[in-house]
Amino acid sequence: MPTVTPGYTFTGTTDPITYTKLNLLAQPTVAAIGPNDVTTTTIANSAVTADKLASDAVTTVKILNSAVTADKLASDAVTTAKVLNNAVTLAKVVAAASNNTFLARSTTGAGNYEAVDTTTTGLGFYTGAGGTVTQATSKATAFTLNAMCGQITTAADSLGHTTVVSAVWTNSKIAATDVVIINHKSGGTIGAYVFNVSCGAGAATLYITNIQTAGSLSEALVLSFVVIKGVTS
User: Fold this and answer.
1) Is the separation of the CB atoms in 206 and 191 below 8 Å?
2) CA-based torsion, 112, 117, 123, 128: positive or negative
3) Fewer CB in 10 Å around end: N or C, the chain?
4) Residue 217 CA, distance from chain mean position
5) What local confidence, expressed as pLDDT, does residue 16 receive?
């Protein structure tokens, strides 16, 4: 901070006032100004002026230059052409199939799909979709198993040659348009039976026929099944 020294200092009551002395009072001496001192020059250099405001001002020209325009929106817009370019098409599904990759329903929610590489994971259901049940009393006894896949163990009662027996199978996962694939996995005489499933809404009927050449069979059959969802339109 610079110091100011008066041009003249009165020494006391005996120092007479003269024109010369008064004139010296109006001419003080200012010491050197430091680099951080505020002066008229430094104020003027950083002052807010019309020119500076104009230089950084928001103007119509600047707005137009950086504005969001139809052309800029169109360049990054989601268009039918872009959707079609990346859409799931029959050709793309066929190409995926040639690499043993298919789309499958995900268990995370309805409408969600994910790719399944059948060369490593196979095509089927996740753990939790299956279930097991053992039929009581006879092969005609109704049973319940609400699952998309799993295992049914029948009763071990006698089934005569060429005899067809049926049992109602309650399954909330089954619709009338679905198809059930069922195989004789173990238990009893493999190849001695024919199996058929007739699907309904929330239930199905399991038919078992003894097709061996003669005689009856009294066997508990272990059947593996998978429900395939189907539609008619």
Assistant:
1) no
2) negative
3) C
4) 54
5) 82
Contact by Cβ (8 Å): 198, 205: yes
Amino acid identity for residue 165 in this structure = V
Tokens encoding 119: 């060369």
How does pLDDT run across 8-59, given as a tens digit for each residue? 676 777 778 777 776 776 677 767 677 667 677 767 777 777 777 777 777 7
Residue with tokens 């104020």: 43
Give CA–CA dist 71/29, Å, rounded.
67
Note if the pTM is more than 0.85.
Answer: no
Q: What is the per-residue pLDDT across 106-121, written as a single tens digit (0 to 9) for each?
A: 555 544 555 555 566 6
